[in-house]
Every structure is written in C-alpha cells, then in structure tokens.
Specification:
The chain is of the alpha/beta class and 379 residues long. Helices cover 39% and strands 20% of the residues. It has helices spanning 2-29, 64-73, 101-110, 131-137, 153-159, 168-175, 188-192, 200-206, 215-218, 238-241, 244-256, 271-277, 281-305, 365-376; strands at residues 30-31, 53-59, 85-90, 141-149, 182-186, 209-212, 225-229, 263-269, 308-313, 317-318, 322-326, 333-336, 342-343, 347-352, 361-364. The strands form three sheets. The chain has a ten-stranded mixed beta sheet, sandwiched between helices. Strands 1-12-11 form a three-stranded antiparallel beta sheet. The longest helix is centred in the first third of the chain and has 28 residues, at 2-29. The structure holds zinc ion.
Length: 379
C-alpha cells in the first residue's frame, strides 16, 4: 500500500516536471518582440563590371525560416531586402545528404564537395587551395571574421587544411602558414594555451601581427596586420558580446580597403546555427538580426566603394525551423523545430554589386566558389 502511494506520488511529480520542461521549452520558441533598427536602402550603381573586392557573409544555419523570423522581429524590414539578385544553393556534402559546416565551408571556400568534418581537404584528404589563399597569391588583402572561435569549421575552411574540424590546434597553426591580413573571432586558447606547448601568439607578433583581445582595442587598429582574439574559445551570446560582429567587420574593412589590388573578406554569423540546435526562436532571432545589421554595414561599404561584390549565403539550414505565427506590428515570432541537427534544405544566395547577376537561379554550393573565383581571381 505504502509502495503504491509513493509510486503514485512519484508519477505525479514526474508529470509535473515534464509540464515545467515543456513550458520552458515553449518560452524559448516564442520571441516576444524587442528592439528594432532602421533599414537603409542602397543604390544599385557600380563603377565596374568586375569586382575588385568580395565580401562574403555566411549565416551559419540560416534558412528561409530564420530569415522570416528576423524579418518579423524587426517589424517587416531587413537589410537583406536590398538584394535584387537572389538564388538558392544545394548544400549536400560528398558523403551525406545533410552537410556539416566543415564540408559546407570547404564547398564555398574551395569549390569541392567533400566529406562532413573536412577542413579544406577533398574526399581523398588532399589539401585544396581556397579562394582566400588564391587571393593572397594574387596580392590581394584577406580577412576572416566570426562570432564563433576563428578556428571553428566555417572560418577554418577558408584558411586551414586538416582532415577533421576538431583539430583546433593544427587549424590555429595553419593561420601562421598564410599571409592573412586580418582575423577577428574567438579562439585565443587555440593559439596561446596549447597542449603542444607552442605559443603561437608570440609567433604571430614575430610575423608582424598586432594581437588584441579587447574589441575596444581591436577597433582602433586602422592598418597593418591584425589578430583579434576576442574570447578564449567561442564568443558569448549577444547580450554579452554586444555588437562585436559589426565592429569587427568594420575594422576589417578599414584595414583591407588600403590594398589597391583589392581584398577578400569572409564574415560569419555563427550562432544562428546554435539557436537552431537549441530549438530557440529567441536565440535564432537575436543572431539573425545581428547578422543582418552586419550585412547592412557591408552593403554601406559596397555602395560607397562601387567596386565591391557582396554575397550573403548559408552553409545549411539548422533545426528544420518553421515559423508558426508572428506579428509585424509588435515583432512577436513563434518558431517550431523538427530536428536538433541540420537539414538538407536549399539555402538562399543574395548578391549585390558588380557580378551579382551571376549568382541567380539554383546552384550547387561549390558554384558559389567558382563564380567568385571567376570574378576575383581569374579576371
Ligand atoms: Zn550546426
């Protein structure tokens, strides 16, 4: 009898806890509206047909639902609405219908479909030269900016050649083998506090880099080589990291634009993906809006410069997100997620500037690389 009563009580308490978990989960799935920003409109008049510079912005995990969530949260306006040339990218990797960010990044950086986890190597694990490396060989300036660790899959795919995305120390060491002008993101520990005992911070300084960890110091650097390592590993969520992505992107552009031959810059909004993995509409919206504002900064630069091509895309969709409800008047969005992982959905490709018309229609993620290289490297 006593056993039965205690069993009954424990069943009730488990049920109560389930209910509480469900409540907490639902709270994350509803963004109640928040601060908004003004969206500017930029002219579509350019000085050339061949871009001198490319700014590639990758919203990790950004599919159409993530865009829709951001659009609703900002009361129906996004900087992305400036784009007139729009396409879709097929994201599958060489060994999987569902890509990860390493294979997705390598497809865009080097134009090859490879296996999930591969950083700048093909399916046979041979290194493949990236657009960043080719731009360097041509004498262009280069940069990488990310809200994750700078050694994380997406930025790593542009500069490193490793058989696994988890080889953070090897990836950090690969930065030293290049002549990259600016990189800003987390990952200080992969350079400084390494298991192999090497201090790559000293090596970076020997190679002429200004190494800074504080974004307020990073933004003061106007020329030369800059390694901005803004967190021990990944950068924090937006409430803590603030406008780091916008500031880092502006800083990188200020330095890179000094090169008369041109530049290649990749900027990643990494945490849209993490919002999807966490099944959190709130997290998705926060990082979607942060990324869109940074797209605005890139467009502003390109509109003024007249020789810069801006491409915005994603490596894959995350969360199988759907938007179930929303309100353009108060910014409320209700999201739902069908998986804790990535999906095989096509992702959007937006382009603005000289050469933008080449990035329309349905393409493979590897085509984005080929089109960029035709315009920036082979011209
Ligand atoms: Zn992911």
């Amino acid at each position: 009898m006593i056993l039965m009563i205690s069993l009954a009580i424990s069943v009730i308490s488990v049920a109560q806890n389930d209910y509480m978990d469900a409540q907490a989960e639902n709270e994350e799935k509803t963004y109640k509206g928040g601060e908004t920003y003004e969206v500017k409109t930029f002219p579509h008049k350019f000085k050339t047909d061949n871009p001198r510079n490319i700014i590639l912005l990758i919203g990790d995990g950004m599919g159409i639902s993530q865009l829709q969530a951001g659009l609703t949260a900002n009361r129906g306006r996004l900087f992305l609405e400036n784009f007139k040339h729009i396409g879709f990218s097929k994201t599958h990797s060489s060994d999987n219908y569902i890509t990860d960010s390493a294979a997705g990044g390598t497809a865009i950086s080097a134009g090859v479909k490879t296996y999930n986890g591969a950083i700048g190597v093909d399916p046979e694990k041979n290194p493949v030269k990236t657009i960043l490396e080719k731009a360097e060989e041509k004498g262009l300036a280069t940069g990488l900016v990310s809200t994750s660790s700078i050694t994380h899959a997406t930025p790593a795919s542009f500069i490193a050649h490793q058989t696994s995305r988890n080889m953070y120390e090897e990836i950090a060491a690969d930065f030293l083998k290049t002549d990259i002008d600016v990189f800003i993101g987390g990952g200080y520990n992969h350079f400084a506090n390494r298991e192999d005992g090497l201090n790559l911070i000293e090596k970076l300084k020997e190679n002429g880099y200004k190494v800074e960890q504080d974004i307020s110091k990073i933004k003061k650097v106007k020329k030369g080589k800059l390694a901005g390592l803004t967190a021990p590993a990944h950068n924090a969520r937006i409430e803590e990291r603030g406008d780091m992505l916008e500031v880092a992107t502006e800083t990188a552009l200020n330095i890179l634009k000094r090169n008369k031959k041109g530049f290649f810059l990749m900027v990643e909004g990494s945490q849209i993906d993490w919002g999807g993995h966490a099944a959190s509409t709130i997290y998705v919206v926060e990082d979607m809006l942060d990324f869109d504002k940074t797209v605005g900064n890139a467009l502003e630069f390109a509109a003024k410069d007249g020789e810069t091509l801006v491409i915005v895309t994603s490596d894959h969709e995350t969360g199988g997100m759907a938007v179930l409800n929303g309100d353009y008047n108060n910014g409320m969005v209700v999201g739902e997620f069908t998986t804790g992982g990535h999906t095989g959905l096509m992702v959007p490709v937006f382009s603005y500037g000289p050469g933008a018309e080449k990035f329309t229609g349905i393409m493979d993620n590897t085509d984005i690389n080929k089109k960029m290289e035709e315009l920036l490297i082979k011209n």
